Amino acid sequence: MRNAFFIILRSTYNSIIILMKSLAGKSAIVTGAGTGIGFEICKQLVIHGCDVILNDLDKKVADEAAEKLTGNKGKCVPVAGDSSDMKVIQSFVSEAVSEFGKLDIAVANAGITSFGDFFTFQLDRFQQLLDVNLKGTFFLTQHAANQMKKQGGGGSVVMTSSVTGHQAVKNLSAYGMSKAAIEMLAKALVIDLSPLKINVNCVAPGATVTERTLLEEEDYPGTWAKLIPMGRACYPIDMANAVMFLASEEARQITGQTIVVDGGWTATSPGPQ
User: Is 162 a catalytic residue?
Assistant: First the structure.
């Protein structure tokens, strides 16, 4: 038994080393990365030696986030701007090529959550939701894939979806629709991107403790720990770990898929009382 344990331990350690090596020297774009899940994705990428373009709508937030990540193996360059603006999207790719010489990974993480009653949901809010969640994701992927095509050698695209794209949640009909659409986009792009050796997948976060969710509810971790089968809320590192895997060489044969990271919530789906 002891020998079997050490064999498993050594195998796990070797897998981690392989993952670290497969990301070292690559370059990436991560949108919506000033705080929360996006920031943690950037952090894990640069720790493992990946050079990253870190995007946030707010320049100060982007600059401060990038500053926090200095001193790691990878380089982090902040690029502020609206991730649904075509000129800004183009700047992500051009900046990555200018700074790092290539683009290997694109993480379309930027998104907005818009709560609202279906019967009174307003057009301006609906349009903003579609612009950020869908337009931004679609065209970042398009521009990134064109650059990867130009380079040759393949690449990885990871999109951030949500459990609300799988389970209905009150007052999130528009948001859930946008997230389900992102997962369909990943499936559809298997046809276009697979011949280029570009894999495309989604990560669907469950209830995750971030700066934003803590503002919404002070005891957010405690509330959701009671509702999630695994007994705790999710944290940004849980999402970042899934993204790291999907962006690595170890996931080359995984494409068009969604990894739901929710501690089992979608299996039971209880809501807060």
Answer: yes
